[in-house]
Amino acid sequence: MKGAKEFWDKSAPRYAKSPVRDEANYQKKLAITQDYFRPDWSVLEFGCGTGSTAIVHAPHVQHIVATDISGNMLDIAARKARAAGVENISFQQGTLDSLELEAQSFDAVLGLNVLHLLDDVDGALSRVHGVLKPEGIFVSSTALVGEIGIVWRVLISTLQLLGLAPYVNRLGKQALVSKLAAAGFSLEYEWQPAKGSVFIVARKSA
Questions:
Q1: Cα–Cα distance for residue pair 189/200, rounded to 1 Å
Q2: Which of 18, 29, 62, 111 is least buried, going by the fewest C-beta atoms within 10 A?
Q3: Residue 166 sits in a domain of what CATH number?
Q4: Measured between alpha carbons, how far is 109 from 128 in angstroms, rounded to an integer?
Q5: pLDDT value of position 8
Q6: 186 forms bridges with which residues in the sheet?
Q7: What is the pLDDT of residues 43-66, one digit of tens each?
Q8: pLDDT single digits (tens) 154-170
Q9: What is the pLDDT confidence band of residue 1, given thresholds at 50, 70 and 90?
Q10: What residue numbers bound the domain in which 60 lies?
Q11: Closest to 205 (Cα-Cα) out of 154, 146, 129
């Protein structure tokens, strides 16, 4: 199986052309998130991909730091932001572990379609908690690979062996909820738009 950076660098052009699978659910997630935002907020999005969601959210906050492991993804994201006339997004290549992010410096952190791709979810949630201000929010949309059928899990494993799929963990909803609580978050909103996925807004305690 390829390393994450190599996989996503190679996948970036195809990923950029992929349509949103469920536009109605995507728009609902955007709306829910924006209901929390304030004009003076500083936001971090890790695993931002080609920047589509950050660009949509940018007019609703003061500044977004959008990060990804893939330089090719970020190149596409920066071009899209320039084309859209968006100037309040800073794109940075790296991971939660590798980037120098100041403690308690963000009002919100977004981890969208990324937690299931991490081998250390507990560490990521601890890092997110650390960079959030007191009462800041963490918004996540996560594929629950542990809750999909055996046929799909076998298919994913086969694709990984062929280098056609990235690493994915087998996180389930209850395990994710427990990990969030252990990291110091309380759930404010939970929605399962489809089997095998969950959208969560969690808040850091004051």
A1: 6
A2: 18
A3: 3.40.50.150
A4: 7
A5: 87
A6: 203
A7: 999 999 999 999 999 999 999 999
A8: 544 554 454 545 567 68
A9: very low
A10: 4-204
A11: 129
Q: Please report, as a single letter, which amino acid is at residue 3.
A: G
Least Cα distance to 67 among 85, 37, 40, 91 occurs for: 91
Q: Which residues, in sequence order, are CB contacts of 153 under 8 Å at separation 6+?
A: 145, 170
Q: What is the spatial distance between Cα 111 and Cα 200, in angstroms, rounded to a whole number?
A: 10
Name residues whose C-beta falls within 8 Å of residue 204's C-beta, 6 or more positions apart in sequence. Answer: 129, 132, 133, 134, 135, 136, 137, 138, 184, 185
Q: Tokens 């507990």: give the residue.
A: 122
Under a CB-based contact definition with an 8 Å cutoff, are residues 106 and 99 in contact? no
Q: What is the pLDDT of residue 163?
A: 57
Domains in the chain, number: 1
* 120 pLDDT tier (thresholds 50, 70, 90): very high
DSSP 19-86: PPS-HHHHHHHHHHHHHH--TT-EEEEES-TTSHHHHHHGGGSSEEEEEES-HHHHHHHHHHHHHHT-
